[in-house]
Specification:
By secondary structure, this protein is an alpha+beta fold. It has one domain (36-158). Helix content is 25%, strand content 36%. It has 3 helices and 11 strands. It has helices at residues 27-37, 107-114, 138-158, and strands at 5-10, 13-18, 42-48, 50-51, 56-59, 62-66, 69-72, 77-84, 91-97, 119-124, 128-129. It has a 4-stranded antiparallel sheet with strand order 6-5-8-9, with no helix packed on it. Strands 7-3-10 form a 3-stranded mixed sheet, with no helix packed on it. Strand 1 (5-10) and strand 2 (13-18) form a beta hairpin.
Length: 159
């Protein structure tokens, strides 16, 4: 037996008849469900640039690529950055990504769950200028080697 047809016996003959149900009344429910499914979120990205470009960028002990680089991030706060490039001094720096007003406790429930669109939070850190590597002179290397030798001999004589 089908959902839409019902067989009635009228004067000994089986005839199909259409069942007419009540009108659909779930419109409001569908609208609310649609809004909840289509809620937005926050997409956070941070861009790191160097001068010259092409330096390896390490963010919180994870290599994220060559500069210029743009990567997603999850939390606001402190980030340790290491930048390396052959022929240039390695730069170790610390950057703070401050929490925007719409991510403060209480407000973040609305922006993360109930807004019907996506918020893009794109941060660009200050460009890091790399300095050419300064190689020590021959005399400085010999002096450092003599100093290390003296410390090693002094430590050995104490034992």
């Amino acid at each position: 037996m089908s959902m839409f047809w019902n067989r009635h016996e009228i004067s000994g003959v089986n005839r199909p008849t259409i069942l007419v149900g009540r009108p659909f009344r779930g419109g409001k429910t569908l609208i609310v469900a649609g809004l909840l499914v289509s809620t937005g979120c926050i997409e956070r990205t941070v861009s790191i640039n160097t001068e010259p470009e092409g330096a390896a960028v390490i963010l919180n002990d994870q290599e994220i690529g060559q500069s210029p680089v743009k990567v997603p991030f999850t939390w606001y706060g402190d980030y340790d950055i290491i930048i390396r490039k052959d022929g240039y001094e390695t730069v170790r720096t610390h950057q703070q990504l401050h929490t925007p007003w719409y991510e403060l406790p209480g407000i973040d429930l609305f922006t993360e769950c109930l807004m019907p669109f996506t918020v893009h939070d794109d941060r660009v850190m200050e460009t890091v200028v790399l300095q050419p590597e300064q190689l020590p002179t021959r005399e400085a290397l010999l002096e450092a080697a003599a100093e290390m030798k003296a410390r090693a001999l002094a430590a050995e004589s104490k034992e």
